[in-house]
Design goal:
single chain, alpha+beta, seven-stranded mixed β-sheet, two-stranded antiparallel ribbon, binds flavin-adenine dinucleotide
Length: 596
């Protein structure tokens, strides 16, 4: 039976010692009164909710899955999910970072992101029910009419209604330009929507009174491709002018997908049959509006994988301390036992440290990224907002793809630590691996994230956003460059920074002649950039730890040891990646299609 302890000490380290989050938030008008005690209290209570209410439902939810009643089209989530959700709503958790104008608590997103890390460690499938709602809230908040906001935002804020994002259709996943769902305008200003959506997370369930589907569809006169897509709010139950629930709308679940992981979340085929909806944002500009939701969701997917990495790590460490097999190569370590605990073996340590370095690096990156979101949304100064928005845009595909790729590696390593027992259900490790796999696929596959990073975020603006991040790295290198103790971190960071600059120019030049060159290099490129970002945060974490390690607190000793492990054992992967990126497109395209 797995265990989970919320990593409050490390969260507080990142919040207060690495990023000085409270001081940075105080500079933003809505958070002038925030203090460290409030932050710590919310983290502690959130951790209790995650570990005590949601975590115990993780394995049972996986085994039971969701059930569809085909006669009513109603879906039941696994036993206990509904009651836990009611407790979540009662505790006010959905409202944490929502706008007070709609009943929200107005706390910063960075705090909400920490809550989500813990909820995802506890139970990713359950967490997707409130998680999707939060994205719907963001899209309606940014692009809804006053009437839509008044109708939907208070209910999404309190959590009594949940939300979905309905993009995917059977013939259209990555390429949304192919989508066919139709929206017919009506005389009263509403629309009638018809079509079929698949793979819709939390698409139908019994946790909430109503479900607000945000649906992409085409107007009759829409141009072909992605420029002809509009966004609609389509509630499961129609809502009267007084806010009361009315008739059942023509949007229902036609089937549930049977899938590899996240069994507790209903992945629904959604049939839209002349469903009533209202348009969100401008006609034919639905993707702009949906991107608000997609960007929030991409950071959210990073949190899913960060959560899984953390919980898998905790369990693998506990097992490695307990399980005895073989003797240490360098001599007996536990003479009172028949064998040594497997944590003495170098390769077991490598697997554990890999997961730990990815979890702690991912936590630093994602909290910093979410702090940029808070600045982007709330800073008075336009320059601060723009800077934060650019940095966030740059790192969003890295949060999504690098953290989820790392979690796949980390959860698999943690399973491996259990040997054959990791493959057996009762230990819970195989569920973490299965659950982690989807995070590399949805919200834009990791390949698509890499094309977004290289094409849109780097090459399309001639590297301006990358230079902004590079300036932060450079400033840090200059600040720390003369400190002997920091050389082991600063030198590889500076070296990688130079290599990324050269690699970007080289790929840019090649892509100028042949766009496939970008496609061939993008995945390697994202991973190299992911390491640059991690190397920066690991250097900064090492700086803090070096300053405090003499006090003898094992927390800082462990932080420093993990930083050293990261630089010695994980960062060198960049050499291979750069070589592969530079090998270009020719080795991929030399193969004739017929020869596959
Ligand atoms: C469990 C689950 C939950 C989901 N939840 C939702 C949801 O809530 N809402 C929703 O709308 N969708 C959801 N999805 C759908 C998900 O977002 C899509 O599966 C994903 O976007 C990929 O689309 P696809 O499956 O059609 O694959 P395809 O688009 O067919 O892609 C197949 C492969 O081709 C690659 N590929 C495609 N185009 C390119 C290119 N230009 N360059 C390089 N490679 C390319 C892809 O990376 C992928 O590896 C969910 C899916 C699953 C399995």
């Amino acid at each position: 039976m797995p265990q989970y302890t919320p990593p409050l000490r490390d969260m507080q380290f990142v919040m207060h010692e690495l990023l000085n989050v409270v001081d940075q938030l105080k500079a933003l008008p809505p958070f002038g009164d925030i203090d460290a005690d409030t932050v710590n209290a919310v983290l502690e209570e959130g951790g209790k909710f995650a570990s005590q209410v949601v975590f115990p439902l993780n394995q049972s939810g996986d085994e039971e899955g969701c059930t569809l009643d085909k006669s009513t089209h109603e879906v039941k989530a696994p036993q206990g999910f509904k009651a836990a959700y009611a407790q979540y709503v009662e505790g006010g958790w959905p409202a944490l970072s929502c706008d007070p104008a709609y009943g929200g608590q107005g706390l910063p997103h960075v705090l909400n992101q920490c809550l989500y890390e813990m909820l995802n460690s506890a139970n990713q499938a359950w967490t997707m029910y409130p998680g999707l709602s939060h994205g719907a809230y963001e899209a309606l908040h940014a692009h809804g009419t006053d009437e839509q906001k008044a109708t939907y935002l208070p209910k999404l804020t309190s959590g009594v209604w949940t939300g979905t994002m309905c993009l995917t259709e059977p013939h259209c996943g990555t390429d949304l330009g192919l989508l066919r769902s139709k929206a017919e305008p009506q005389a009263d200003g509403s629309y009638r929507i018809t079509g079929q959506k698949i793979f819709i997370s939390a698409g139908e369930h019994d946790l909430a009174e109503n479900i607000v589907h945000l649906v992409l569809a085409r107007l009759p006169d829409a141009p072909a491709g992605s420029k002809g897509i509009s966004l609609f709010a389509v509630p499961k139950f129609l809502v009267g002018a007084d806010g009361a629930l009315g008739e059942r709308n023509g949007v229902y679940c036609g089937g549930l997908e049977h899938k590899m992981g996240i069994h507790g979340n209903s992945t629904a085929q959604i049939v839209l049959d002349n469903a009533v909806g209202t348009i969100v944002g401008e006609p034919n500009k639905g993707l702009n509006a949906m991107f608000v939701m997609m960007n929030a969701a991409r950071l959210g997917v990073g949190m899913q994988s960060l959560g899984l990495t953390e919980v898998a790590y905790q369990n693998a460490v506990a097992y490695a301390r307990d399980r005895i097999q073989m003797r240490s190569l360098s001599g007996v370590k536990a003479p009172d036992k028949a064998a040594d605990p497997i944590i003495v073996h170098p390769d077991v340590r490598k697997m554990l440290l890999t997961a730990r370095a990815y979890a702690e690096g991912g936590r630093a990156l994602s909290m910093w990224a979410t702090l940029q979101l808070d600045k982007d949304l709330s800073a008075d100064d336009e320059g601060v907002r723009r800077e934060a928005a650019d940095l966030l845009a740059l790192v969003t595909p890295i949060v999504k793809a690098f953290i989820t790729d790392n979690a796949w590696i980390a959860t698999s390593h943690c399973l491996q630590v259990f040997g054959g027992h990791g493959y057996i259900k009762e230990w819970g490790m195989e569920q973490y691996v299965r659950d982690a796999r989807i995070n590399m696929i949805y919200e834009g596959t990791n390949t698509i994230q890499s094309l977004d990073l290289l094409g849109r975020k780097v090459l399309a603006d001639n590297g301006a956003k990358l230079r902004k991040f590079g300036k932060m790295v450079q400033d840090f290198i200059e600040e720390e460059g003369t400190d002997e103790a920091m050389q082991e971190f600063i030198n590889p960071l500076a070296d990688l920074g130079e290599k990324v600059t050269k690699l970007t120019t080289e790929i840019g030049m090649r892509a100028f002649a042949n766009q496939d060159e970008a496609g061939a290099a993008a995945v390697d490129y994202l991973r190299v950039c992911g390491h640059l970002v991690f190397a920066y945060f690991w250097s900064r974490m090492a700086r803090v730890a070096l300053d405090k390690v003499d006090g003898g607190d094992p927390f800082y000793q462990a932080k420093l040891a993990t930083a050293r492990f990261y630089f010695a054992k994980l960062l060198p992967e960049t050499a291979t990646l750069i070589r592969s990126a530079r090998a270009g497109v020719a080795p991929l395209m030399a193969m004739d299609e017929a020869w596959f």
